[in-house]
Amino acid sequence: MKKLFFAVSALAALTLLVPSAGFAQTAFNQIGLYTDAAGVPSSASFNPTANVPFSVYLVVTNPVNHAFNDGAGTPPYERVMTAVSGFESQVGFWTGPTAGAPTLPGLFVLSQTFNGSAIRLGEGNEYVVGFAAPVPVAGVAAMMMTFSIMVIDSDPKEVFLNTTSIPSIPGFMAIVDGSIESNNLQAAWPSSGDYANPVFGINTAVVAVETESWGNVKSLFR
Fold it and tell me: What is the pTM of this model?
């Protein structure tokens, strides 16, 4: 029952809290798809063998709470997340960046598995997910879920992320800081830097990008 409460709380945070707009994109709070569970940028592309399943991981990288408040009179400040308890995104195996575009031909999602007990709202490409136990951040990454995918040809295919149809933060995907219970909903960005750019490439090159130096990112996560 306690774990269920945590999962429901995470979903409530994603669906009910609406912080003020006006976020500047950084290398923090990115969501991407990779063949490496640690979200290594070079694993955002893969050349699979036709008819052989392979795993693709949805990973949150460099999660930071930009509005942390310890409740003791300290003004909000940046705080590295040690765990992520939920996320909100559309995962698009579409022929283009627009949600609802035709599904990629020759690609089959065989299964999907969350990294722990989770409750999901939404169907199809919509994911509003709360975890019963927050997913720990290992290094600078938290792996949220695994897709088992198979393609039946060698044609290039690109995968996109987008906001949900009713986003908690208009214009953004979102993640939930799993180590605190308030001020925990944060805007998130695609690892490609823009919704119009693919986050994952099959038989085509896609590069996960950062808009802030890795030196600045790594210094915060030490």
Answer: 0.84
